[in-house]
Design goal:
Order of helices and strands: HEEEEEEEEEEH
Shape: rod-shaped
Number of strands: 10
Distance between the termini: 119 Å
Radius of gyration: 30 Å
Length: 156
C-alpha cells in the first residue's frame, strides 16, 4: 500500500511565492505611476479652471466699471462704478479679488491708456503674462470707452 500524499515541493512553493512578489511589486509600481499622472492632470485642470475664471471675471469687471486705476506701488487695479468698487491685488502666486483668492500665476506685463503704455494711473487696457511650467502665454483685457468717459475726465 502506497501512502504518499500528492503535494507541492518546497522549491515549487518558493518559486510561486517569488513570482507572486514580483507581480505584486510591478502592480504597485504601475499604480503609483497612474496616481502621479492623475495628480498632474488634476493640477493642470485646476490651474486652467482658475485662469479661465480669472479671465472671465476681469473681463466682466473691466467692461462694467467706469473708472479703472492702476497703483504700481501696491501692484493693484481698482475698478470703480457708481455702485461698487472692486480691487485686484497681484501677488507672486495668487490674485486677490476683493476677498476672493484666485490661485493663478498671472503678472501684469503692461498697462495702457488710450493705446499708450503708461506706468500707473487711469487705464483702459492691461496686458497679462501667465506663467506656466512649459511656456508663458500672454493675454490682454481692454475696455471700450464711451463718450461719457472722456467727458468726465479732467483736461478733456
Amino acid at each position: 500500500m502506497n501512502s504518499k500524499v500528492k503535494s507541492f515541493t518546497l522549491s515549487e512553493l518558493l518559486v510561486t511565492m517569488i513570482i507572486t512578489v514580483i507581480v505584486v511589486g510591478l502592480a504597485f509600481t504601475v499604480l503609483d505611476l497612474v496616481r502621479k499622472q492623475i495628480n498632474a492632470i488634476q493640477k493642470n485642470y485646476n490651474r486652467t479652471t482658475e485662469l479661465a475664471f480669472f479671465k472671465q471675471r476681469i473681463w466682466l469687471d473691466f467692461n462694467k466699471n467706469n473708472d479703472i486705476i492702476y497703483n504700481a506701488i501696491e501692484n493693484q487695479v481698482v475698478l470703480k462704478s457708481d455702485f461698487d468698487t472692486i480691487s485686484y491685488n497681484f501677488k507672486d502666486d495668487i490674485v486677490i479679488r476683493n476677498k476672493d483668492t484666485l490661485n493663478t500665476k498671472v503678472k501684469i506685463e503692461k498697462i495702457f491708456f488710450k493705446g499708450i503704455e503708461i506706468k500707473q494711473g487711469i487705464i483702459d487696457a492691461i496686458s497679462f503674462l501667465e506663467e506656466k511650467e512649459a511656456s508663458d502665454s500672454k493675454f490682454i483685457v481692454f475696455k471700450n470707452n464711451d463718450a461719457t468717459f472722456f467727458m468726465n475726465q479732467d483736461g478733456f
